[in-house]
Amino acid sequence: MSGAPDGSRVRALRGATTLEVDERDHLIERTQELIEAMFERNALAEDDLISIVFTATGDLHSAFPAEAAREAGITHVPLLCARELDIDGSIPRCVRLLVHAYTPRSVADLRHVYLHGASQLRTDLPE
User: Fold this and answer.
1) Is 90 helix (H, G, I), strand (E, B) or coil?
2) For labelling alongside 14, which of 24, 48, 111, 127 has CA 20 to 30 A away?
3) Is residue 122 annotated as a catalytic residue, yes or no?
4) pLDDT, tens digit (0-9, with 9 covering 90-100), for 16-41
């Protein structure tokens, strides 16, 4: 697999956050916080992005998580929202994302981001 001329490769980054309540402003705020942390921890810019896939648990109805990205200025990247599987015992009011991006970072140097109640999904990762 060859990378871009600048040494970048296509990588995938995962993240998640939870909401206290299903309200549009709260969903937008928490999703933007997650995106901002993902960008900051991985030195990403919009030009690095290929796509973002968002999922939301079945108890979230107030807004599409992709709206948060659009409102934050991510306007030239394909975004997709989907429903998370409804599994017994899963975390309620959870938004997850999968970011595909070009980055010179190795797989070991990627920083996946799990905020608020979603931190329990990946206790093996540093904060």
Assistant:
1) coil
2) 24
3) yes
4) 999 999 999 999 999 999 999 999 99
